[in-house]
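Protein data:
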Amino acid sequence: MMHDQLKFKKLGIDTQQEHVVYMRSDCHICKSEGFSALTRIKVSNNDKSIVASLNVIESELLSPGEISLSKGAREALQVPEEAYLTLSHIPPVESMKFVRSKIYGHTLTFNALQEIMVDIVQGNYSNVDIAAFITGCAGKMSEEEVTGLTRAMVEVGERLDWGIPVVADKHCVGGLPGNRTTPIVVSIVAACGLTIPKTSSRAITSPAGTADTMETITRVNLSLEEMKQVVKKEGGCFAWGGSVKLSPADDLLIRVERALDIDSEGQLIASVLSKKVSAGATHVVIDIPVGETAKIRSRKTAETLKERLEKVAATVGLRLKVVLTDGTQPVGRGIGPALEAMDVLAVLKNETSAPQDLKERAILLAGDLLELAGEVPNGQGVVVAKEVLETGKAFEKFKAICLAQGGFTLPTFAAFSYQVKAEKAGTVNKIDNRRLAKVAKLAGAPDDPAAGVLFDAPLGKKVVVDEVLYTIFAESEGELSYALEYIANEKDIITIF
């Protein structure tokens, strides 16, 4: 063993994507190198290296000559038991000067943003550093900065080229419970013969993302090569963007944004468009739900976002159509991965109980995408999309894609549930989307796939006393209790007049 090495011991600690290294405070390296808690250090295993945050142990959990790593760090370095790891200081991260500059209100150039993205992807930023960058950009970002950030995020990852002139894609900016139109749109568009390699994020601040929902039905952690094979065979896919690493910086930013509960406009635009460019898309439809308690709260804000999306898209070579939709209430009944998946399947199977609002919105967006891509004449998109859905062609394509990705399973309900009932008779007049989504998150969504809310009180519905407004599902009694404690103090989630 060399003086800068320690023997690896597995402790089995999971810190998600944050790389953490564990050492004794009295080990010879901590003493000689002056390492202290939270120091960022370089850890190497032969030719593989990562940057990790140090956690200091003052117990017999490790011996002075041993070191341990968090699960993610161990997997990144591919460390076997009792391997010897090499430790060293890392030089100051130069791009942090640009982060500090942004915090103080200065504009960042493309080169500065590129340096930041490179350091983030290489693991040189801790979660605290990434949070500082996100917070610094949470205010106003210029159009040039957003374009620069988009380009920088594309350049630090893979970029696909499908070798064809039209590659379709669809995205929703989120902020509206349910609204799981993407799997339906992909199925319709792929059934029409277009190529639509859909990569989706997991939830940032919502109870479910498309990747979370689809994971209750099929495998979404596809490698880049697996994704290409599925698309080649079926024309479309439902892949988690983090597994194919098309815009790896975005996935790292999203993880911290979720913890901060921040999803700023500039980063939203860069996140969406970088994923589309990286996936090789040429024609994209974007859904922006607008409502008082949606992510985008006013028509004016939506129009501004629409304009900025279109301008940045043009600079990075995308043909884009932005659709402003109703964001005053949830779409469909399910809020949470498995419950939303049930809605998707009901629509695709043309079940009589399927939520019609989800069906109609999916048909609208699929029709717009078919027209944008030149597959059908303008004005005929909705007609064609509806026919493909109602004849069962979309469901057949959906199943084929799922099977090509590794399987097709049916989502299930969580073990524990509670019905929230109307305390008075009247008409549903208003729904607080944000607080309803929070109920689903407190119940465990999206980390517990079957957790969430089954909603049954759309605007305009007449209800009687004790009629069920929504049902909370949780995978443990404790999480169900969290949600119930919250709603006990929140009387106006659903307003009845």
Summary: The chain has three domains: 5-89, 168-244+279-405, 416-496. The two ends are 75 Å apart (CA to CA).
